[in-house]
């Protein structure tokens, strides 16, 4: 039975959890144990994980050749690269990396890390895939030895394709723990390659709610909801506008680089000077929309009702499997083009 340098316990086997499992399994030196309290988790792994694996991962810690055979999951399990645990204790007790993908509820994550601390190795790396709950909040009820090792490693959905990992250490996280996470993800191969360097870990200098990626995305979503709710543009036309302009531009240049180029010889300073009146007018008039937690604002007459109604009319009640497959192919193509051109 082969041995592996890294043993990752993934706590949570939902969409993000299984996508992260596919990411980790691309490293030939890593084995994965999944824990999820749902009774059907084994069936979910069997049905979903293979769709995230472009090719069968290596089943040897010394070989990069893919496993033979059509039953990928059975091969991974038989070679000890993949285990499905029955309890948190079973999942974490021999792991040297523990990564949680539990629901986005602060108290739930706090309780989870308290339980993990009972069974985990005292040197294990502790990672959270949270979309916005800071490590300092998640570990606030834990001992200092947990806080020193706990940090956020936030992926963008779907993690097995999109190469961003936001690394967000807490104020008590040791620098070497952050450096280890950055090094680990920096060596993960891409979907079509055995070479590392596909993922782009970005380290945030300090904690902030929602981190950076989601703050930018939600800022655009808020204005999009406002514009649709005010009847300025339809859901479908707004999406077309983004895909035909901002999307392609930002795939090649980020926000600051784009506007730096837009300023010509004077760079972004000249751009801001020239467009200051328009920017001031737009910024002061950006829409304010409220998302009530209990859903009371979801009437047909509200912006929320309008957005939901138009989105379902344009794209159906939810994304179809065929639509998701097409989008994944497109995302892979965009990322590969970036690697060639940037």
Automatic annotation (TrEMBL):
It is an enzyme of class 1 (oxidoreductase). Keywords: Cytoplasm, NAD, Oxidoreductase, Phosphoprotein. Residues 7-184 form the 3-hydroxyacyl-CoA dehydrogenase NAD binding domain. GO terms for biological process: fatty acid metabolic process. GO terms for cellular component: cytoplasm. Its main location: cytoplasm. The record marks 154 as: Important for catalytic activity. GO terms for molecular function: L-gulonate 3-dehydrogenase activity; NAD+ binding. Gene3D superfamilies: N-(1-d-carboxylethyl)-l-norvaline Dehydrogenase, domain 2, NAD(P)-binding Rossmann-like Domain. Its EC number is 1.1.1.45. The keyword Oxidoreductase applies. It is found in: Cytoplasm. InterPro entries: 3-OHacyl-CoA_DH (IPR022694), 3-OHacyl-CoA_DH_CS (IPR006180), 3-OHacyl-CoA_DH_NAD-bd (IPR006176), 3HC_DH_C (IPR006108), 6-PGluconate_DH-like_C_sf (IPR008927), 6PGD_dom2 (IPR013328), NAD(P)-bd_dom_sf (IPR036291). Residues 210-267 form the 3-hydroxyacyl-CoA dehydrogenase C-terminal domain. Homodimer. Belongs to the 3-hydroxyacyl-CoA dehydrogenase family. This is L-gulonate 3-dehydrogenase.
């Amino acid at each position: 039975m082969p041995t592996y340098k890294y043993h990752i316990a993934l706590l949570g086997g939902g969409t993000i959890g299984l996508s992260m499992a596919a990411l980790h399994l691309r490293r030939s030196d890593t084995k994965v144990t999944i824990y999820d309290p749902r009774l059907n988790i084994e069936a979910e792994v069997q049905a979903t994980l293979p769709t995230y694996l472009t090719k069968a991962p290596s089943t040897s810690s010394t070989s990069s050749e893919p496993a033979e055979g059509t039953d990928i999951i059975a091969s991974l399990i038989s070679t000890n690269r993949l285990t499905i645990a029955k309890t948190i204790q079973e999942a974490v007790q021999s792991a040297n990396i523990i990564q949680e993908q539990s629901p986005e509820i602060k108290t739930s994550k706090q309780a989870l890390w308290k339980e993990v601390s009972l069974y985990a190795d005292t040197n294990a790396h502790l990672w959270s895939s949270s979309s916005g709950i800071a490590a300092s909040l998640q570990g606030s009820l834990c001992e200092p030895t947990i806080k020193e090792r706990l940090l956020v490693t936030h992926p963008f959905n779907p993690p097995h394709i999109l190469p961003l990992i936001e690394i967000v250490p807490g104020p008590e996280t040791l620098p070497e723990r952050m450096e280890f996470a950055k090094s680990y993800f920096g060596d993960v191969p891409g979907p079509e390659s055995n070479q590392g360097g596909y993922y782009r870990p970005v380290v945030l200098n300090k904690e902030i709610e929602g981190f950076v990626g989601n703050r930018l995305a939600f800022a655009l979503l808020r204005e999009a909801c406002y514009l649709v709710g005010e009847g300025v543009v339809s859901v479908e036309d707004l999406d077309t506008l983004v895909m035909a302009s901002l999307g392609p531009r930002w795939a090649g240049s980020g926000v600051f680089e784009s506007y730096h180029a837009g300023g010509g010889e004077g760079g972004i300073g000249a751009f801001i000077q020239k467009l200051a009146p328009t920017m001031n007018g737009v910024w002061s008039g950006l829409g304010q929309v409220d998302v009530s937690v209990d859903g009371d604002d979801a009437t047909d007459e509200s912006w929320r009702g309008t957005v939901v109604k138009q989105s379902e009319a344009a794209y159906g009640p939810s994304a179809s499997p065929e639509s998701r497959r097409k989008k994944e192919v497109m995302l892979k193509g965009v990322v590969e083009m970036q690697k060639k051109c940037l």
